[in-house]
Amino acid sequence: MTGASDLAEKLTQLAATERLLVALDFDGTLAPEVDAPENARALPEARAAILRLLELPDTRVALVSGRAMASLQHVAEAPDSLLLVGSHGVEFRLDSPEITLDQSAGEREQVDRLGETLEAVAARFDQVWVETKPAGFALHTRLASEEDSRAAHEAALTETADAVDALTVRDGKNVIEFSLRSATKGDALRHLAEFTGATAVFYAGDDVTDEDAFRVLGPNDLGLKCGQGATAAGFRVAKPAEVGAVLHDLASLREKHAILPS
Predict the structure, then answer these.
(1) For 253, which of 15, 112, 181, 200 could close a Cys bridge (C-beta 3.0–4.6 Å)?
(2) Which CATH number, 2.30.29, 3.90.228, 3.30.70, 3.40.190, labels domain 105-179?
(3) Which pLDDT does position 257 carry in this prediction?
(4) In a 10 Å sphere around its CB, with 0-12 CB exposed, 13-18 middle and 19+ buried, how is residue 175 labelled?
């Protein structure tokens, strides 16, 4: 992990790229974690930096979240020019109001069975609840006791394995996600980079699911980890407010580059 001067140098290099993609996780990266997920909002400084970047030529900004698209749209309060990826890459809202999602009848039947199983698990514990996603569900235990959280996770893993075949499971912070799709944030980032024609990518995230995105970054790209924990990202900050500050630095550098004569 490198220091502040190295980060400043890398941001300067990144700002000079021909077509820049800035892709960002939401919860824990732009927005502090809150007990009620529907109340999460990006910090004002982070939102202001995103709006600055959106105004710049050859610069695209995307949110890449594990949230279902409807939830992401609600908390992000996103302008139409902001690209959105929900459910770890199952849902996309690109340069169209339409949300792309491909799901077969067989998958829908398995999703229903998975939901029934997880709701039955959640009902046995206090402060454990299930979030519905297009290709699966998330079992939230943030408000539960440590004992109940551990027991709920164990029960969910055992009972969903018996109920549904070929299930993708992702552990996160106080949440465990179950999906019938194996899409990752790394897959989503590759798709975004191709869609935007990016010549360099900035990606920031805080959770273990963001490591899939960090691992697909190339030598011209920049990965920024928010918070503690092992990471494949080249740089780290402590909290969302610092992510906002880095985004403002990137916007300032990109603005200078945009007005330089070609």
Answers:
(1) 15
(2) 3.30.70
(3) 81
(4) buried
